[in-house]
Amino acid sequence: MSKGANNTYFGDILEGITSLWGGLKITFRHLWNARHKRRQIGLQEKEYFSQGEGVFTLQYPFESFPIPDNGRYRLHNEIDDCIVCDLCAKICPVDCIDIDPIKSTEEIGKTSDGTTKRLYAAKFDIDMAKCCYCGLCTTVCPTECLTMTKTYDYSEFDVRNMVYHYSNLSPEESEEKKKAYEVQMAEKKAAKAAASKPAAPPKPVAKPSIPGAKKETGAKPVIKPAQGEKKPSATKPVIKPVVKPSTKQGDEKKADKPSAKPVIKPVMKPKSSEGESKPAPKPVMKPVMKPKKADGENKTEGSGKSLPKPVMKPVMKPKSSEGESKPAPKPVMKPVMKPKKADGENKTEGSGKSLPKPVMKPVMKPKSSEGESKPAPKPVMKPVMKPKKADGENKTEGSGKSLPKPVMKPVMKPKSSEGESKPAPKPVMKPVMKPKKEEGENKAEGSGKSLPKPVMKRPEAKNDDVSDGQKKDTDEASEAKKKSAKPIMKPIIPKKRKDDDQ
Amino acid sequence: MLAFLVFLPLILLFALAAVYAERKVSAYIQDRYGPMEVGYRGLLQTVADILKLFLKEDVRPSGAESRMFRMAPMLIFASVFAGFAVIPLTTDILGSGIETGVFYLLAIVSLDIIGLIMAGWGSGSKYAVLGSLRAIAQVISYEIPLGLSILSAVMISQTMNLQELSVLQGIWSEETTWLFGISALGIDVSNVGGFLSWNIFRAPILIPVYVIFFIASLAECNRAPFDLPEAESELVSGYHTEYSGFRFALLFLAEYALMLLVAMLGVVLFLGGWNTVLPNIGPLKLAEWTSGAPGTLAGNLWGAFWLIIKSLGIIFLQMMSRWTYPRLRVDQLMYLCWKVLTPAALILLFISGVWRLWMV
Description:
By secondary structure, chain A is low in regular secondary structure. Helix content of chain A is 14%, strand content 7%.
């Protein structure tokens, strides 16, 4: 009898009786079926929604719901595979990763994917209480040592216990490594002094950067245009010495500098067969260098890096076999480095390089086999941006980098194999935006970021992947993404609450 | 005295077991486990709860009428407990074998309402007052169908002595028991016993009467679906909103004791009391084997066993109703009482009288 079909007195009573009986049947059925328990199957199972009967309860500490193997919960760092590149710490939106790197005197070893390790991590802490589980760190991790695991229950009574320490060095070992490095540095310095190269770049403040082993082609300092703004530093040295150390090929190697560079940056001289030397006096702040790999892959992932530029910036001119030389006198602000690749690919991703020019600028004449020299007198401060791409693709995809320009601007003429030079006289302060994108995926997501730049420069991590000749960031980025999606661990169904799947 | 010493622990143990059972039953109906942590599958959960209640502070609201507030739980529990005095647990364990047992029971249980008013009014809380007002309206209303349905059973049995009522429904009965109470069939089941000699089978007209009794007893107990006085979703907790600690435990105990009391009363009136369920089938004298001779230890144990088992079955039904049906609205409550149950009980009362005159 359907509801309301019979609103008579007896109809109501009859309906009441039948519906009461129907209700009792339902509850009795559930009571009877409660002898069984529903199987705990994951959401991904086909029959997840078809289990209509039985006790539904999951007695959590003793049983647990099956978690997909690619669950993204707690971060885990496989420290043996970590090259301490600091990318994760930099990209972390909530700054929950705290890394204290120690440079090593020699190559420490290789990670499981063959990347060379040159840094120790005196500290590698992840504060899971701060973590927002965005997964960006795992995406940028070049060696995929940083992953998200399926362990989700790691509550603590004390919030301090939420900080996970992944470093495998004891404090004593860290001290030891630090000392060893300092000793080595001192020796090198002494050796250098003995070598009596006249041109010693004056180093103002801090510690010299080590020219580490550099892989073939010239080390380039990476200049990453800060997206957005560059802060011209007001003080410019009036005159900037040009230092031109000449090195033999293979003399100087540059180590990748993952990170923060000391205030003064050594001059790097990439060696090309011609053996040009470029003096690069270094101002207080040192540009980040980006080593180049033999394959010539130079990726600056997470391209939107804002590098504050040091007041004085050395010009580096890497030489490539093509022998392009680019003189880049540098003004106060950041050095322009133009790495050259043997293949002739020169990508300065995040291409907008603004080269502020000092008031007086020495003329540098890089020598290339072509023997192009470009004097570039520079006015007070003019950044030149010169993106270079091997393919000559210069996309301004709205990556929006605005470079404020100093009042006076030098003209720079970069030379690329194509020989494109762009002089860009700039008005008093006009930002030039020159976004460069590779196929458009080298984006730190949310790419249009304007990052205010701190006066001090942040270290840049550079990720060198040695993979042949694929220079496309796009490819690599996408690969990295693909890789990062894999959970390292194999799923264990935790039986206990404290069970770590690590 | 013996009955007192038996019933008091029985009620206490029952309350513990019933709260546990209720939580488990409701859980299983809802595809849950219910308490699982304290003891094996949560068996000690209610023990832990009652210990917690005993240790809690006895908070008395400053706005409460102190004397009423303090006395109400005792009055409620005392009136409910007094009802057990006339329940014949066995042939020997019986508080009082008064001839007007049913009458007494109805009267003494009505005192419960006084306690509810005192609790609600004395609390000085709007919720408590509302809850007690609803309780009064509900309990007084439902006493009518309850009384009429009891009266039907009394008519069939021709006695208000609960012990006699029990004896009549078994193999020890003096009266001849016909199958389904219809002497015209000529089947004498006096020596068969078992469920065939229960009131609802001696006079099948009592089956609908028992349904009415059951519904009305639910309302008397303020249990779902008639739990308006304690409607947790509307009034915080009804008349015991302001109670805590031991007084709350007493109120809770009284609620479950009243459940047990009305279940036992229903069993005595309609379902054979302490008589066995199993009939004698030819040479299998199941009824005699499971009854024991009246007055012996075995007889008493069997009697207590059967009465308690049947009562627990009824209580299980009460729990099923509670977890199956939604709460009635006040108008529905009154409609059901005055327009459905009361007329039906009156008609059934009339039929019962006719039955007693002509069929037996």
